[in-house]
Amino acid sequence: MLLVKIRVGELLQDLWSLGSALLLTSALLCAVCASVAAQAVAQPVVDRTEAPSPYDTASLSGFNRFFIPAEEPKTGRVIGVSGTITGLYAGASVALYNYWYRDYDLGRFRTFNDNAEWLQMDKGGHVLGAYFQTFWAYELFHWAGMPKGKAIGYAALTSTVIQGTIEVFDGFSEEWGFSGGDILANTTGTVLAAGQQALWDEQRMRVKFSFYPVDYDGINDPQLVARSQELYGTAFAETLLKDYNGLTYWLSVNPSSFSPALDKARWWPDWLNVAVGYGAEGLYGGFDNHWCADAGLKPEQCPEAQLITRFDVPRQRQYFLSLDVDLTRIETQKPFLRTLFGVISVIKVPSPALEYRSGQGFKGHWIYF
């Protein structure tokens, strides 16, 4: 009876710690948004140095005019953006918990060195997440009329809070832990987006991803099928988030923005990018391909009779060189389309690609996604 009371007390203490940490990060994000709104009210007029609007507003519909960035802070827009970011943050936190953490026990906050896991594919996900969160937040604050410097600062802080929430979840999960490598990857993504906006007032290099659903049933190996379902789930949204075997992360560079001569050349479109990608295959475990038939036990805790070892499945790194399209550089007089292009610019456009796979050499793809 005493032991039960102690364990219940420890569980309540851990739940209290997790709740307090999440409440703190939520309060910090709310404070950021409230500060943005307060400054918009206090400083309704701002001297802006950005170029004038490229649109012929007289010929645009009211729907399209809505998507034109304000030239000075508009209180309604700033409050709307702040509320939207806070609401999306809350919804995303719940979804992330349900898809990723719900099936694992909570524990005391701990750190964990996971830098060698998943052939670093998880770190690519952190860079991607921090990058596009910073970029999208900047676009929202810019649309609301915030000055460039403040919009960049608030966007970077917003991304840091969002990614910090993931680290809090990791820190209290028995399956993972607070990771310094994740923090470094998050910082890389945030700095890449914020730094380019500050330096060039545009994104000359974009972090993107591509994904294809892996046909595990086609492998005709019941062990690997069961393991993939245990790790990555079966729903498309879940595999899109988790399945490193189907994900590729890209750094898409716009050569024209770095070369005035190429920018003037007719044979190279302004919107054509060169992309380098990184992926992996054969991942059925974090560090290697062995696991316990009892999903509740780690390999080091597993009885020998239940330990499954699949070192026959090679874990392979993949490197890609491909072309891409920077949708935001496609000329359009429709602000809605320009906004839409910015939102979906996180997705790599399917293109021919050259792949180098460790141990197998080069392979060409007419279309790779």
Strand content: 5-15%
> What are the segments in which pLDDT stays under 50 over at least 5 consecutive residues?
1-31, 40-50
What gross morphology would you assign?
Answer: globular
Helix segment count? 11
Strand line-up across the major sheet: 1-2-3-6-7-8
Label this structure with key terms.
369 residues, alpha+beta, 2 domains, six-stranded antiparallel beta sheet, two-stranded antiparallel ribbon, 8 strands, 15% strand, disordered N terminus
Describe the protein.
The protein has 369 residues and is of the alpha+beta class. It folds into two domains: 1-44 and 57-201, no CATH class; 205-369, no CATH class. It has eleven helices and eight strands. It has a six-stranded antiparallel β-sheet, with helices on one face. Strands 4-5 form a two-stranded antiparallel sheet. Strand 7 and strand 8 form a beta hairpin. Helix 4 runs parallel beside helix 6 (180-200). The termini are far apart. The relative contact order is 0.11.
In short:
With 369 residues, the protein is of the alpha+beta class. The protein contains 11 helices and 8 strands. It has 2 domains: 1-44 and 57-201, no CATH class; 205-369, no CATH class.
